[in-house]
């Protein structure tokens, strides 16, 4: 019942590009609100998504905020489900551009590696939320983006500088991909050469959480692909 008053402060926070820490905290609050309210946040999503998309397009906003915004896309999609359809094309355009940027980064010093991992974590969290949000309702809406997402997962797998958070998020998205797309994912997966090796790597991990996620992903994939 407080959202009508709170939304104006959220918008102000998201517009605060100069004090990027304020913007960063506000993005986190939006994610918390989405998780708390679920579909009840729907009436406020036009304003929120508009500001988030503006933030991503801004050349003034500190780059550290952008991975958080992508992650927030996932929170919003998970909260409002198939209603995210109206934002899907815009969000996917931004996600694809960021995914390509994360591949094209020149130089491999520690700071760049760290930021690339943060960016990829945010992108993967967005994809996970979108897949889960569309599962069982309008999964076909994601088909035009499926090939690009699978290609991105392959690039992530090949990157030996990926950190544990990216590995866990990527293998989770692989499972979400199969879980949401079902047999619609089969043709794309059968053309893919990386995912079996990625699963094997994660299933043999000593990290029990990663191992469990990979085993779930493998089971989900086995339902999509004959043999």
Order of helices and strands: HHHHHHHHHHH
Q: Beta-strand level of the residues, as a percent range?
A: under 5%
Specify the structural class. Answer: mainly alpha
Number of E strands: 0
**Radius of gyration from CA coordinates:** 18 Å
Major sheet: none
Q: Would you mind describing this structure in some detail?
A:
There is one protein chain. The chain is mainly α. It is 74% helix and 0% strand. It has eleven helices and no strands. The chain has helices at 3-14, 20-37, 45-57, 66-80, 85-104, 110-134, 143-158, 164-181, 186-191, 195-203, 208-224. α3 (45-57) runs antiparallel to α4 (66-80) and α5 (85-104) packs antiparallel against α6. The protein starts with a helix and ends with a helix. The mean pLDDT is 91.
The gist of it:
This protein is an all-alpha fold and 227 residues long.
Task: Indicate the topology.
Elements: H1 3-14, H2 20-37, H3 45-57, H4 66-80, H5 85-104, H6 110-134, H7 143-158, H8 164-181, H9 186-191, H10 195-203, H11 208-224
């Amino acid at each position: 019942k407080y959202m009508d008053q709170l939304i104006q402060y959220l918008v102000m926070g998201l517009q605060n590009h100069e004090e990027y820490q304020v913007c960063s905290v506000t993005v986190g609050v939006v994610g918390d609100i989405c998780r708390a309210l679920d579909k009840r946040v729907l009436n406020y999503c036009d304003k929120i998504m508009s500001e988030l998309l503006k933030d991503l397009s801004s050349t003034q906003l500190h780059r550290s905020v952008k991975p958080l915004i992508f992650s927030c896309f996932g929170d919003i999609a998970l909260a409002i489900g198939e209603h995210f359809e109206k934002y899907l094309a815009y969000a996917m355009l931004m996600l694809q551009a960021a995914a390509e940027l994360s591949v094209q980064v020149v130089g491999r010093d520690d700071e760049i590696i760290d930021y690339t991992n943060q960016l990829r974590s945010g992108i993967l969290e967005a994809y996970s939320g979108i897949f889960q949000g569309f599962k069982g309702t309008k999964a076909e809406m994601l088909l035009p983006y499926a090939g690009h997402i699978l290609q991105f997962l392959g690039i992530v797998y090949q990157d030996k500088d990926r950190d544990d958070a990216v590995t866990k998020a990527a293998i989770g998205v692989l499972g979400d991909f199969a879980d949401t797309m079902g047999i619609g994912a089969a043709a794309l997966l059968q053309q893919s050469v990386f995912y079996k090796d990625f699963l094997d790597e994660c299933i043999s991990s000593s990290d029990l959480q990663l191992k469990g996620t990979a085993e779930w992903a493998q089971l989900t994939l086995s339902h999509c692909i004959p043999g």
